[in-house]
Amino acid sequence: MSRRPISTSPAPQDDSQRAPKRQRLDHLTQESFRNGVFLAPMVRSGALPTRLMALKHGATLVWGPEIVDKAILHAEREVDPITGVISYNGKSRAMFTTHPLEKPYLIYQIGSADPELAVQAAKTVMQDVSGVDLNCGCPKPFSTHAGMGAALLSNPDLLCGILEALRRELPKEISVSAKIRLLPTQEETKKLVERIARTGVNAITIHCRTRNMRPRERALVERLREIIEFVHELGLDVAIVENGDCTGTADAQRVRELTGADSVMIATAAESNPSCFSLTPLQDVESTLVPSYLRLCKYLDNHWSSTKFCVTQFKGTRSELSKTDIHELKSKIAKAKRYEDVEEIIGSWTGEDEFREVMRAVETRPPRIPTGAEQEEAVEEEIPAPCSTPPDRVNPEPPSSGAPKMGLRMPLPAIITGSDMISPTPTPGGMR
Ligand SMILES: Cc1cc2nc3c(=O)[nH]c(=O)nc-3n(C[C@H](O)[C@H](O)[C@H](O)COP(=O)(O)O)c2cc1C
Predict the structure, then answer these.
(1) If you measure from the C-alpha of residue 138 to the centroid of ligand 1, how many angstroms do you get, rounded to a whole number?
(2) What residues does 106 pair with on adjacent strands?
(3) What does the entry list under GO cellular component (predicted)?
(4) How do residues 68-77 score in pLDDT, each as one tens digit?
């Protein structure tokens, strides 16, 4: 399928026509953690294609899955010259993959119980990320037995020691943050939050469940307002991010009003549907998100087992496919051993169009305009001229991936269209 080139405006001829300049921040500050809806760190589910999909659909920042400090230290960094994918390879597999496209929005999460190792781990990846986050909430034994994750909640000296070391040793362009859980009482939680805030972190995410609560128990969101008011009274400049039971960007507004949180972080709902960051999330995921996601993964050369795992977590609220078609689609994916086995579903495309669509959505996000104290740190950039159609061209380029409709080429499932159109992206300040 041939595509017309994207229309571009002619270059300005002289100084009087030159684009004006605006200020842009090229690193994260406290403000970057405000008025946002974030993709939570998720082991397995928070893979690179999911993070890119979340960004495409409006996630403000994305967290990578927790990676234990020692695991990344000896990884070998490799860049795919075609796709640009950056892999940190361990002996048998990639420990972490990322892409330059997500760097301005990417927070790398560390599992650690040692300040020196945490700093070394952060330094290993810092050229490819914008911030590092310390996991202080994982209650699983593999994390806590080594003193990491939720075990840090009962060892605040070590927890704060790690954050202080990260802040001291990393360049100021790399943000430092922590993700904790509620402690059993408000007093204990406030005390811990104050200590963490005084280490100089940019943000603290509070998962509104205690260490012993199961994921399916309702998050104790109503406890957060008192904690946030306490932080404000202390006059500490740290963003507080709510986490727990938020279903999407529309719901994030409710959560913020209830809690007073600066931003909201979403895990489970995004695992089921990474387009939940849009005000109009995709509902019919089998016909839209699944084929799009598979193509993107194929282009990025994402490990098939990871792709398969993530796709099988997707759930929509409504499907145009019959139950039989959905069942057939799922069993085809479940049986597939590689991308070629799902060509019936994704077609034989390389996925490049899909990636371009993501790139266009991410790159056209409005830049964050620096506020007050940030002005001095801002760099100037030219404001791109508005996209206009050159006089010799009749129609502007339509905003689609250009991928053929699936129904035209494949017998099963007939209704899948394979297009995951960009849904309206919430403006960065839209959650005030
Ligand atoms: C599949 C999965 C993997 C997770 N992995 C991590 C992780 O790597 N680091 C972390 O801090 N929390 C992790 N969590 C916890 C989430 O980030 C989040 O705190 C929790 O699910 C509550 O948010 P929710 O109510 O929106 O699901 C994970 C959760 C899920 C569902």
Answers:
(1) 8
(2) 62
(3) cytoplasm
(4) 999 999 999 9
